[in-house]
Design goal:
This protein is of the alpha/beta class and 299 residues long. It has 8 helices and 9 strands. A 7-stranded parallel β-sheet has the order 3-2-1-4-7-8-9, with helices on both faces. Strands 5-6 form a two-stranded parallel sheet.
């Protein structure tokens, strides 16, 4: 039996309230290894109601169902971990607010003590584009609470970079300072990106902010090795966190060699590996977990 060396480690996971999501799966996976999971979450105040409300209160995946899960607290996830014999606590805070970024570590330490592993999973996502709004056509008419795709502006840019890049950088900095002050010479940072972070039409700010996260991660890996801290990036492909409808799944799997969409556990397993003793000499890596989706194959 392989011992990953995670017993009694304290793991801080951001964005873990969706019980069907990647963050929740990561928190559960660490708890199953006898680590203590501290789950950050934030219930978005934006009205993401989809015009087709047919699946918003059902168990069938789709955008309506997904955004219902995003509105939840982390209580369901915490309860599931405790019922399985694990330890978990949670705290809510909007990471766009720097005060909440500072407070997050304080809350985690209050619950479990020193944080050993930081998983930056929380993400802000609103579709935007360089195309002027008056030429978007039907794409701008699909949301009740606002356009499905809107032209980039200060607000759409800043909301993405505040959570997906700035909060990640500051959380890493705060984590590192604590490790160095305590001279523990051991730490793990795993940041969650997205395949195609180098650019994607109609998701320009989301993808660009994830690309910034990857750059921060590589710089951190180069600087923090002497302190016993590894830094890696996991880049998921399409993962069923509740948003992929049966019709969308059928279309997606034609571009996935393994012929299925991802499960949150697929990502969680990789994250746990990167935190384990078995990955102690792995740092500065970008690992695609996507079933072969978006492979760059020569013609």
């Amino acid at each position: 039996m392989i011992d990953p060396g995670l017993k009694d480690k304290v793991v801080l996971v951001t964005g873990g309230n969706n019980p069907f999501g990647i963050g929740a799966a990561i928190a559960r996976a660490f708890a199953s290894q006898s680590a203590n999971s501290f789950i950050h979450f934030f219930r978005q105040e934006i009205d993401f109601r989809y015009k087709d409300q047919s699946n918003s209160h059902s168990q069938q995946p789709g955008l309506g169902f997904f955004f219902e899960q995003q509105r939840k607290t982390a209580d369901e996830v915490v309860t599931s971990i405790r019922k399985s014999g694990g330890k978990a606590e949670s705290w809510e805070g909007d990471l766009r607010n720097p005060k909440n970024v500072n407070r997050l570590f304080e809350e985690a330490e209050k619950a479990f003590g020193q944080v050993d592993i930081l998983v930056n999973n929380a993400a802000e996502y609103v579709a935007d584009t360089f195309v002027p709004s008056n030429t978007l056509g039907k794409e701008a008419e699909l949301w009740d609470g606002g356009p499905m795709v809107s032209t980039i502006d200060v607000e759409s840019h800043d909301r993405h970079f505040a959570v997906n890049a700035r909060a990640v950088a500051i959380l890493m900095s705060m984590f590192v300072r604590r490790i160095i002050e305590r001279q523990t010479n051991w730490g793990r940072i795993i940041n969650i990106s997205a395949d195609c972070a180098w650019g994607c039409p109609k998701e320009i700010s989301y993808r660009a902010s994830k690309y910034a996260l990857e750059s921060y991660s590589r710089s951190a890996a180069a600087e923090l090795g002497p302190y016993g801290i590894t830094v890696n990036v996991v880049s998921p492909g399409p993962v069923q966190s509740g948003y992929i409808s049966p019709e969308m799944e059928e279309a997606l799997i034609t571009d996935i060699p393994l012929r299925r969409v991802g499960r949150p556990e697929d990502i969680a397993n990789t994250v746990v590996f990167l935190a384990s003793e078995q990955a102690s000499w792995v740092t500065g890596q970008l690992i695609f977990v996507h079933g072969g989706h978006r492979m760059a194959l020569g013609q």
